[in-house]
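Researcher: Next sequence.
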Amino acid sequence: MPGGGGGDLPRRRGTADLPAVRAARHPAGRGIDYQAEEPLALALAEAIRLDGDLTINLAHLAFIDAPCTRLIMDAAHGLAESRQVRLVCSAAVARRFDSSGAGELAGIGLVTVDER
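Model: Next structure:
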């Protein structure tokens, strides 16, 4: 939903937020965990069907578990070589992606944001 506060939504430049991930948020509100796998997978599938590069904004999350990290990495890895995935993350979430090998995958860029 345009202008919404869902900072953890996959986005494509010039498109509205994908509301399916709002349901994927952790009960504490600042993370996503295994309970979010299905809505996260649906939102990623929807975003991947669109043309162009993909930006997944996780900047407002303080936590993402290993299964959700892997789900995002697998989706990014499965994109055509001509497409790029940009993960916008807090330092804590970026560390999770780094430790999972995201930096070694072609086509994935990690952008760490300040957690104010």
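Model: Confidence is low (pLDDT under 50) at residues 1-24. The first helix runs from residue 37 to 49.
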